[in-house]
């Protein structure tokens, strides 16, 4: 399978530079404990979102077809 990953790599680089390396993500995440519902609530929300994603659903189907245990 061949995929054109140029756009995906550009997006990864943008997120890494603008959100992670700049410290913006860390500031935003740490502020949850003082300004919002707390980091644990946010993590649980992100876990639920990830479990319901198309990628997770596809992963489950592939694992079932291959007879592998779900993570």
Description:
This protein has four helices and no strands. The protein is mainly α. The chain starts with 5 loop residues before the first helix and ends in a 5-residue tail after the last helix. The mean pLDDT is 86.
Average pLDDT confidence is 86
Secondary-structure element pattern, one letter each = HHHH
Main sheet characteristics: none
Q: How large, in whole angstroms, is the Cα Rg?
A: 17 Å
Share of β-strand residues: under 5%
Q: What's the overall geometry?
A: flat
Count every beta strand, where a strand is a DSSP E run of 2 or more residues: 0
Helix content: over 70%
Distance between the ends: 25 Å
What descriptive keywords fit this protein?
71 residues
Short description:
The chain is mainly α.
Strand and helix map with partners:
Elements: H1 6-21, H2 24-35, H3 39-51, H4 54-66
